Amino acid sequence: MDDGGVADPGRGRGGEPGEDREDLIRVERAEKVFTVRKRTGFLRRERREVRAVDGLSFTVARGEVVGYIGPNGAGKSTTIKMLTGILTPSGGRLTVAGIDPSRERTRLARRIGVVFGQRTTLWWDLPLIDSYKLAHRMYRIPDARYRENLDRCVALLDLGALLDVPVRQLSLGQRMRGDIAAALLHDPEVLYLDEPTIGLDVVSKAKVRGFLRELNAERGTTVLLTTHDLTDIEQLCSRVMVIDHGRLMYDGPLTGLHEAGESERTLVVDLERELPPIDVPAPARVVRVDGVRQWIGFPASASAAGLVAAVAAAYPLVDLSVREPDIETVIARMYAERASA
User: Fold this and answer.
1) What is the model's pTM?
2) Do 230 and 268 belong together in one domain?
């Protein structure tokens, strides 16, 4: 598949034979089918199958940071659960570092780290440091390496003042940073992050993103990231995969995704007084005016700098901000584009 194009369902990006790369994750025609029973009447239930993952194929090279995105119910978390061995695939084949997750889950656990944004792996009623001490014993991490990794995570994720605080007393952002540290103490080769910045404030998000960039740069940790925040993808990932209804729709750079979905960013402008729609150069356009506030749409693949400079030079500004397109809108436009082709 060419960069910027819609994925070939039969193979993942970079999966062609002969390429000089080490594929740490391989997913080949993976399927996951759940049986659902629904009440249809008195003492009657209807049984049907739900295909959460449907013939999914891709590869991830060692050291890559890949965004794995899609709307709710697309199959993202199901894929990660199969890659960690929590779920067994209904069909196809998955390997991580040459290991079949469903057959050798315990062996694989020493080589991967997992953070689920909605669930914690930390002990709820115990101080944060106790969860780290448990990981030290559970993974049999050498003492010197444990201390080095713990000190590094504490410093970079700003956890020093939180180590003696019970996990239940931590804010969501603090707990998330604590979970990420716990997942990295044993030096995993692969880190799965399922919505790691959900509900975090701006400062916490910045700390998490900075830490992950440094982790990948210094240690070459492979990261598979699911998120609804496109800023996470922009700042961390060189490649993005879009999944919907269990199928891979796109595999390539983020710029190609925006082009495929013809997505727009929005410049929100607050003026000193009510004025007619702002005169902006094409392809930017005013999409809404409400009193002193105006919304200007422009291609997501374009820089906002020129547009901001032009508006600031010609109009009395009070405030402005840039809003990213949501993933659901991008995917909906991709569907519409493919349907009309």
Assistant:
1) 0.77
2) no
